[in-house]
UniProtKB/TrEMBL annotation, chain A:
Gene3D superfamilies: Cobalamin-binding domain
Pfam families reported for this sequence: B12-binding (PF02310)
Protein name (database record): Cobalamin B12-binding domain-containing protein
Organism from which the protein derives: Mesoaciditoga lauensis
B12-binding domain segment(s): 1-130
Cofactor: adenosylcob(III)alamin
Recorded superkingdom: Bacteria
SUPFAM superfamilies assigned to the protein according to its UniProt record, in alphabetical order: Cobalamin (vitamin B12)-binding domain
Keywords annotated in UniProt: Cobalamin, Cobalt, Isomerase, Metal-binding
InterPro entries the UniProt entry points to: Acid_CoA_mut_C (IPR006159), Cobalamin-bd (IPR006158), Cobalamin-bd_sf (IPR036724)
Transmembrane segments: none
UniProtKB/TrEMBL annotation, chain B:
Residue ranges of every copy of the Methylmalonyl-CoA mutase alpha/beta chain catalytic domain listed in the record: 37-543
InterPro entries tied to this protein: Cbl-dep_enz_cat (IPR016176), MeMalonylCoA_mutase_a/b_cat (IPR006099), MMCoA_mutase_a_cat (IPR006098)
SUPFAM superfamilies: Cobalamin (vitamin B12)-dependent enzymes
MF GO annotations: cobalamin binding; methylmalonyl-CoA mutase activity
NCBIfam families: acid_CoA_mut_N (TIGR00641)
Organism: Mesoaciditoga lauensis
Record keywords: Isomerase
Protein name: Methylmalonyl-CoA mutase
Length: 130, 550
C-alpha cells in the first residue's frame, strides 16, 4: 500500500484542499497521514522520514511556495532522503516550471480532479517499480 | 382562491405534469446545496404567515434592517486589499478611494495575523504575501499616511492579534489628531471561526475569549463608534460548509460571544449594537438571498428570546458580504466576472450592508489593479443600473424564496440545538464536531463535481484548451528583506527600557483579570513589535494545538 503524507507548511490555514485530497487518497486505497496546518519545513521533513512515507504532498495557497518548498527539498536532501514531492495550491505557471526543475514531480492547481491525482501517483509507483 | 382550492388545483396540475414527464423527463441537479429535493413548483401553500416576513426595519427583520434600505444610501462598497509593504498598500488604498470606494478593508499578512515579527523563522516566505506586513507602529503610520482617520471607516481582518492592531490604529489616530472615540471601523476579532476554519489562532480558546471580552469592554467605554467583532461565516462556508451550516455555525459563534460579553458585565442591549456579521455569497442565487433573510430573522429571535434584548438596534443583524473565492476557477477566468455578478446580486437582494466583490484572477494569484477595478465596477453597475436597489427586499413573497428562507431557518436552528446539547460552541470545536461536519460537506461536494452531479463551467464541462499566459500580480521578492531592514531600524531607534517596562506591565495585567487593552496601547506607543507583544502573551496563555482530523 502506498503511504502518503499530506502536509501544510507555513502559516496558511486554507486546509480544505489538503483535507479533501487526504480523504480522496485514502478512499483511493492509500495509507494517508495528514500533518494539520502550520507546520515548519523541519517538522514536515522529520515527520515524513519518521513515518517512512513513500510520497509527500504539500498544499499551499498563501504564495509562500517559492520559499518553503525549496527549503523542504533541501532538508530532505540533507537527510539523504529521496521521498518524491507533489504540490497542490495556487501556484502561478512560471513557478510551476521552476518547482518541477527543482524536482517536484507534479503541481496541481484549482479544479484538479482527485481521481487524476490518485491515478498519477499510482502510475508513478508502477513505473518506479519497473 | 382559498387554500383548499389551491391545494386541489395544485394536485391536478401536478398529476397532469407527471404524465408529461414521461415524454419530457426532468433531469440535472435538482437538489439544494444542502441536498434536499427542490420541488417542481412552489405555491402560496409553501409560504408561512406574513408575521414571519414582516416589514423592513421592524422585527423579525426578514426584509432588512433599515426601513428604506438602498433607497436612502447604497451599501458600502468595500474591497479587501493589502499586500507587500505598508507603502504599496497605502498606494492601493488611495487608488481605491479615488475610484469611489467608500471604506477601507485591510488585509494583513499571515505573520501579522499570527503574532510573529517578519524576521521570525515562522514567517519565512509569508511576509507581505496575503496582506500587508505590520511589525510595529512604524508600519501602521506608513499604511495610513495621508488618509485621515476621522474621514474613513476602516475594517481590519484581524483576529488573534486584533488587540494589537486596534491599539496601533488608536495610536495612529492620536498622531493625526483624531481621538479614539471618533474612530470608525471594525475588527474581525472572531477567534472561534479561526479554530473552525481559518487557522490564524494563537492561544487556546479560554484566554482567547478573555482577550475578546477585554476588547468588548474597552470599546464599550472608549470607542462608541467601533464595531468590536465581525462574526464570520465566510471562512466556514469557504472551507466547505453548505448554506445552512454557514448560518448555523456563525450564529452559534455569535451566541457564544454574547454569552461571554454578558459574563463580563456588558448589557446585551448596548453590546448587541456593536456586533456585526460577515457572510459569503455563492452562485445559487435564490438560496443565498434566502440565507441572508433567514440569518437576519434568526438572530433577531435569538437576541430577543435567548438574551431578552429589547432595544431594536441590538436585535438587528448587520452584515458584510464577500463573494465566494472558492467558486472562482483558474480555467477561463473571465467567467468569474459572471459568477461574481450573480453572487453580488444575491448579497444585494439579501440586504447586505457592505460588499466586497472578488476579482476574476483570484484563482491564479493576487488580483491586479485592473481586475480589482472590474470587480468594483460590478457593484456599481448593480447599484446604479440594474434597478434592484430601487425597492426594499424585492423578492419577498416569492413562494420559493420564502419557502427557502423558512427551510434554512428550521435546519439551522436544528444545528444550533445540537451544538447547545454538546455544551456550546467551544466544546463543539474542541470535540472536532463542527470541523468534521464542514469537512464532510467539502468532500461530498468534491465528489459531486467529479461525478458531474455538479457542473462547473470550464472545469468539468465546456472545457477548452487554454493558453493562459496571463498577467498576474507579483509581490516583490526582496520585500521580506526590506521589511526586516525596516523592522531593525525601528528596533534600533526606540528606547529599549520603555519597551521592556511596557511588556512587563502587560505580563502583569495578563496574569490577573485586568483589561490587557491598556498595556497593549502603551506598548505599541513605545514601538514594541507585534511579535514581542504576542510572545509575552504566549508565555502566559500558551498556544493552541488543533485536533487533526480528515
Amino acid at each position: 500500500m502506498i503511504r502518503v503524507m499530506i502536509s501544510k507548511p507555513g502559516l496558511d490555514g486554507h486546509d480544505r484542499g489538503a483535507k479533501v485530497i487526504a480523504r480522496a487518497l485514502r478512499d483511493g486505497g492509500m495509507e494517508v497521514i495528514y500533518t494539520g496546518i502550520r507546520q515548519t519545513p523541519e517538522q514536515i521533513v522529520q515527520a515524513a522520514i519518521d513515518e517512512d512515507v513513500d510520497i509527500l504532498g504539500i498544499s499551499i495557497l498563501s504564495g509562500a511556495h517559492m520559499k518553503l518548498i525549496p527549503k523542504i527539498l533541501t532538508l530532505l536532501k540533507d537527510k539523504g532522503s529521496n521521498i518524491p514531492i507533489f504540490v497542490g495550491g495556487i501556484i502561478p505557471d512560471e513557478d510551476v516550471n521552476e518547482l518541477k526543475k527543482m524536482g517536484v514531480i507534479q503541481v496541481y492547481g484549482p479544479g484538479t480532479r482527485t481521481s487524476e491525482v490518485i491515478e498519477e501517483i499510482k502510475r508513478y509507483f508502477e513505473h518506479a517499480n519497473v | 382562491m382559498d387554500k383548499e382550492e389551491i391545494e386541489k388545483k395544485y394536485k391536478e396540475w401536478n398529476d397532469r405534469t407527471n404524465s408529461l414527464t414521461k415524454k419530457y423527463p426532468e433531469e440535472g441537479n435538482l437538489k439544494s446545496s444542502w441536498s434536499e429535493d427542490v420541488k417542481r413548483l412552489y405555491t402560496p401553500l409553501d409560504v408561512s404567515d406574513y408575521s414571519e416576513i414582516g416589514f423592513p426595519g421592524e422585527y423579525p427583520y426578514t426584509r432588512g434592517v433599515q426601513n428604506t434600505m438602498y433607497r436612502g444610501k447604497l451599501w458600502t462598497m468595500r474591497q479587501y486589499a493589502g499586500f507587500g509593504t505598508a507603502e504599496e498598500s497605502n498606494k492601493r488604498y488611495k487608488y481605491l478611494l479615488e475610484q469611489g470606494q467608500s471604506g477601507l478593508s485591510i488585509a494583513f499578512d499571515l505573520p501579522t495575523q499570527i503574532g510573529y515579527d517578519s524576521d521570525d523563522p515562522h514567517s519565512l516566505g509569508e511576509v507581505g504575501k496575503v496582506g500587508v506586513a505590520i511589525d510595529s507602529l512604524t508600519d501602521m503610520e506608513t499604511l495610513f499616511e495621508g488618509i485621515p482617520l476621522d474621514k474613513v471607516s476602516t475594517s481590519m481582518t484581524i483576529n488573534s492579534t486584533a488587540s494589537v492592531l486596534l491599539a496601533m490604529y488608536i495610536a495612529v489616530g492620536e498622531k493625526q489628531g483624531t481621538k479614539r472615540d471618533k474612530l470608525r471601523g471594525t475588527i474581525q476579532n472572531d477567534i472561534l471561526k479561526e479554530y473552525i476554519a481559518r487557522g490564524t489562532y494563537i492561544y487556546p480558546p479560554k484566554p482567547s475569549m478573555r482577550i475578546i471580552t477585554n476588547i468588548f469592554e474597552f470599546c464599550s467605554k472608549e470607542m462608541p463608534l467601533w464595531n468590536t467583532i465581525s462574526v464570520s461565516g465566510y471562512h466556514i462556508r469557504e472551507a466547505g460548509a453548505d448554506a445552512v451550516q454557514e448560518v448555523a455555525f456563525t450564529l452559534a459563534d455569535g451566541i457564544e460571544y454574547v454569552k461571554s460579553a454578558i459574563s463580563a458585565g456588558l448589557d446585551p442591549n448596548v453590546f448587541g449594537k456593536r456586533l456585526s456579521f460577515f457572510f459569503a455569497s455563492h452562485n445559487n442565487l435564490l438560496e443565498e438571498i434566502a440565507k441572508f433573510r433567514a440569518a437576519r430573522r434568526m438572530w433577531a429571535k435569538i437576541m430577543k428570546e435567548k438574551f431578552n434584548v429589547t432595544d431594536p438596534e441590538a436585535l438587528k443583524l448587520r452584515f458584510h458580504t464577500q463573494t465566494s473565492g472558492s467558486t472562482l476557477t483558474a480555467q477561463q477566468p473571465e467567467n468569474n466576472i459572471v459568477r461574481v455578478t450573480i453572487q453580488a446580486l444575491a448579497a444585494v437582494l439579501g440586504g447586505t450592508q457592505s460588499l466586497h466583490t472578488n476579482s476574476m484572477d483570484e484563482a491564479l494569484a493576487l488580483p491586479t489593479e485592473d481586475s480589482v477595478r472590474t470587480a468594483l465596477r460590478t457593484q456599481q453597475i448593480i447599484g446604479y443600473e440594474s434597478g434592484v436597489a430601487k425597492t426594499v427586499d424585492p423578492l419577498a413573497g416569492s413562494y420559493y424564496v420564502e419557502s427557502l428562507t423558512d427551510e434554512i431557518e428550521k435546519k439551522a436552528f436544528e444545528y444550533i440545538k445540537r451544538i447547545d446539547e454538546i455544551g456550546g460552541m467551544i466544546n463543539a470545536i474542541e470535540a472536532g464536531y463542527v470541523q468534521q461536519e464542514i469537512s464532510n460537506s467539502a468532500y461530498e461536494y468534491q465528489k459531486e463535481i467529479e461525478s458531474k452531479g455538479q457542473i462547473i463551467v470550464g472545469v468539468n464541462e465546456f472545457v477548452m484548451t487554454e493558453n493562459n499566459q496571463r498577467v498576474t500580480l507579483k509581490v516583490n521578492d526582496d520585500l521580506e528583506k526590506k521589511q526586516i531592514e525596516k523592522l531593525n531600524k525601528t528596533r534600533s531607534k526606540r528606547d529599549l527600557q520603555l519597551v521592556k517596562n511596557s511588556l512587563n506591565k502587560l505580563r502583569e495585567v495578563a496574569k490577573t483579570d485586568g483589561n490587557i487593552m491598556y498595556p497593549i496601547i502603551d506598548a505599541v506607543r513605545v514601538y514594541a513589535t507585534i511579535g514581542e507583544i504576542s510572545n509575552t502573551l504566549r508565555e502566559i496563555f500558551g498556544e493552541y494545538k488543533e485536533s487533526v482530523l480528515i
